[in-house]
Amino acid sequence: MNRGSLRWLGLAVLAFGCLFCTDVWAARISEIKEYSILEQAARFFTLRDPSLRNALIGSVLMGVSCGLLGSFLIVRKQALMGDALSHAVLPGVALGFLWSLTKNPLAIFVGATAAGLLGAATVHAVRTTTKHKEDAALGFVLAAFFAAGVCLLTMINNLPGAQKSGLDKFMFGQAAALGDGDVILMAVVTGLVVVILALGYKEFKVTSFDSGFARAIGFPAQGIHYTLMLLLAFSIVVSLQAVGVVLVSAMLVTPAAAAYLLTDRLGRMLLLAAVFGVVAGAVGSFLSFVGHDMPTGPLMVLAGSAVFAAALFFGPRYGIFARWWKQQSRAARTRRENTLKSVYHVLEKRSFQGDSVSWQELAEQRRETEDEARHLGDELCRHQLATRPRDQADLFLTPSGWQRACEIVRNHRLWELYLTNAAHMAADHVHEDAEKIEHVLGEDTVRELERRLNYATHDPHGKIIPGLADVQSGLPSLTRGGRAVGFGSDT
Amino acid sequence: MIEPWAESGALYGWILAMGILVGVSCGLVGNYLLLRRMALVGDAISHSVLPGLVVAFMLTHSRNIPAMFAGALVAGLITVGLIEFIHKKSRVKPDAAICIAFTTLFALGVVMTSLIDKGGLHIDAECILYGEIAFVPLEPPVEWFGIAIGPQPVLLMAGVALAVVGLSVVFYKELLVSSFDPGLTTSLGFNAAALHYGLMAVLSVVVVSAFEAVGAVMVVAMLIIPGMTAAQLSSRLPVRHGLVVVHSGISSLAGLHLSVWLNCSTAGAMVVMGALLFVLAWLFSPSDGLVWRWRRRGSDGSGEEGTVASPGGKV
Fold first, then answer.
1. Per the CB < 8 Å rule, is B96 touching A131?
2. What is the pLDDT of residues B72-88, one digit of tens each?
3. Interface test with B, best of A75, A83, A171, A229 (most B CBs within 10 A)
């Protein structure tokens, strides 16, 4: 999942590009307005129109490069750098246009990249030479450069004779307006991003996670930072036409953040972010095509946000529902274990005479109503920790239920003893702590506790600590002896 | 230099007044944002009030001012809540959470503006980004007792500016303490959370009233550039408040002239002049201007300013 996966990604991008290189059908986007949504979908996905093909290939390329670079922004905690840079390129776009007074992709590309790098340098300069913090520096670059860009663009709009068609598309993006030259430029930039990231994967990874270590082993951290900023400026510039100045930052941050929620490994994160970026781009440009005249950028952003929301809620490990479910099941397990402990206490009170407890006894032990006790007992039965034969009102523990009950009581009493003996806490102060830890002590820790406490048999309150023999033997064997046997006494 | 004033003084007078009022009310709020390191929350809210405005318009079918304020307030608080939600409930860092929250809401707003029937709504793509400060004087004037006072947006902005000034006088102590030391605020008995959300509410109202004039992105500039300039010149909050007023006056006037000269967006030109003032303060501030620091370092060579990491052709 590192250099290899990136290489495969690059191959996939190339293959995708070759697949649609045949020119089958030519139609202007204005001619295809009278079709139903289904027909439009068919047209869109069969890629018969060159402008549509450009739109889709363009948004796929954009998704790949933005997703890859955005992942590095996320792990370097520089998400808003993308926002600042995407606004900062605007004056460069306008100057590139002024250079030739046409929408020349190359001139715009050069101007915008220069402006983006100037923006990154200004952020650095403001941060290091004034007392302003990073947020103010980013905000300043974002707003000041954008304002300069707006001035230049409005100036161009008022110029006589300039061929300014398509320049307004830089604001919110219109993927359908992508020309062949734009798509070629996007392919070159995406290829460059993939190749550079694959070649310098180790360097980028180390500087992103531990810049001090990277410097110590001789990596040029500053150079790598600016390489990343340069690539970022490149891919922002080529994405502008598809998604627009204002929302490029979302294409950088949102897919990568969604990927960040799903995995802990950078390689997988890069791959996922690229896939999410492609999905967002394709869905956005499709929706923009179906609803005539809709700007592409906002739709792509909404598609990306939907992906992020899905990852946020339904992510298998860090998702809100997964964590909520884990919390709920842990709470339920604790509740069941507390019920088992109460059953043990009831049995212990009558010196383990008889092997069942009645609802009344359980309710008294727990200081609850019988209904509540019955409810808890039913829960134990559902988890095969206890049984309740049809003709009887009493609750019998199953072998596994008995075992868990012994373990919990043992954990509780061992911990109490440990706190009084080793931590010198008063015997009446240890119960609360033991109530919490009894559910989480593992077998190894228990063994170690027993060893340190010299296999003690009684807790600070004089009660017998159930030992290994109790845990392993069933309940009936205990009733023979009339009481819990304690560790070692039976063997 | 006086050409625009000779041609149509009233027109430019109202634009200038609007610029100064926007600058003052945004700048005062911005001072607190900067102190609290929340400059980019201002960025987020300035973008995400858009869907609030659109929903308010869809519900009332008119440009009902209380409804628009309410929509912006709700949208602003939703933004802050959403940022906190993403940040607290997942391992996404706050900066990424800000970015995700506001771009989503802004995109929603843009899609809604392009879907709804736009009859009478002065929000289109151009206005969202550039603002229409130049059209402010053309709005129907408000009449009191039969006397035309002035264009409605300017009067509204004046009200908002007065409210901001009033609030920052009344709550001066609380805001000062909570901006510098949240812990002390709580121990003095002020409600830090209420102050935070109150500031966010004021921010939303200021942003929405400035929105039409200067657009979503340049509101950010109006919020933080005056405060940043003032912070270069003084570290005392009352002085900074005064400097913010001066800054908005100079940048509005100079920006107006620049826009006439270049024939470009007025709001953009005002921000460019404001940014220029910041660069001047950055270079020539009497207390810690870059130029003095370089010269001092050049003359005695002691290099006492450890903070100057890489001076050079960055400016």
1. no
2. 889 988 998 899 899 88
3. A83
Q: Is residue A86 part of a domain?
A: yes
Going from N- to C-terminal start, the domains of chain B cover: 23-136+149-292
Neighbour-count burial of A465, counting CB atoms closer than 10 A to its CB (0-12 exposed, 13-18 middle, 19+ buried) = buried
H or E element at residue B268 = helix B266-284
For residue A166, the Cα-to-chain-centroid distance in whole angstroms is 37
Half-sphere exposure of A114 (CA within 13 A, CB side): 12
pLDDT of residue A475: 54
* Rounded distance between C-alpha atoms, residue A91 and residue A125, angstroms: 19
CA distances from A242 to A67, A275, B42, B115, B128 (A): 15, 17, 26, 19, 19
Distance from CA of B235 to the nearest CA of A (A): 10
Question: Using the beta-carbon criterion (under 8 Å), do B275 and A143 form an inter-chain contact?
Answer: yes
Q: Do A139 and B262 touch (CB under 8 A)?
A: no
Average pLDDT over all residues of chain A: 81
Residue B235: closest CA among B31, B18, B26, B24: B31
Cβ distance of A128 and B217 shorter than 8 Å: no
Give yes or no for a contact between B248 and B255, defined as CB atoms under 8 angstroms apart: no
And the tokens for A362? 């359980």
Q: For the segment B91-108, what is each residue's pLDDT rounded down to a tens digit?
A: 888 889 999 999 999 999
Note down the domain range covering A396: 327-481
- CATH fold of the domain at B23-136+149-292: ABC transporter involved in vitamin B12 uptake, BtuC (1.10.3470)
Say yes or no: A75 contacts chain B, CB-CB below 8 A: no
Cβ–Cβ < 8 Å for A143, B220: yes
Contact B110 A132 (CB under 8 A): no
Q: Is residue A27 part of a domain?
A: no
Contact at CB, A151 and B91, closer than 8 angstroms: no
Angle at A79 between CA A73 and CA A84, to 5 degrees: 115
H/E segment holding residue A357:
strand A356-357
pLDDT tens-digit map of B137-185: 777 776 666 666 677 778 888 889 999 999 988 888 888 888 888 778 8
Residues A219, A225, A231, A233: what is their CA dihedral angle, to the nearest 10 degrees? -170
Q: How far apart are CA A168 and CA B126, in angstroms?
A: 9
pLDDT value of position A435: 87
Q: Which of residues 312-331 of A touch B (CB under 8 A)?
A: 312, 318, 320
Residue finishing a domain among A315, A341, A374: A315
**B122: helix, coil or strand?**
coil
Chosen for mutation from B84, B85, B93, B95 (greatest number of chain A CBs closer than 10 Å) is: B95
For chain B, give percent helix, strand, coil, nearest 5.
Answer: 80, 5, 20
Same domain assignment for residues A76 and A128: yes
Partners of B104 on chain A (C-beta within 8 Å) are 250, 254, 301-302, 305
Residue B302, pLDDT above cutoff 60: no
Q: Are residues A451 and A407 in the same domain?
A: yes
% of chain A with per-residue pLDDT over 70: 83
Q: What is the CATH number of the domain that holds A132?
A: 1.10.3470.10
Q: How many CB atoms sit inside 10 A of residue B47's CB?
A: 29
Residue B263 has pLDDT above 50, yes or no: yes
ipTM exceeds 0.95 = no
Residue A208 has pLDDT above 70, yes or no: yes
Please tell me whether residues A297 and A416 are part of one structural domain. Answer: no
Cβ neighbours of A140 in B, within 8 Å: 224-225, 228, 275, 278
Q: Taking CB atoms and an 8 Å limit, are B104 and A312 in contact across chains?
A: no
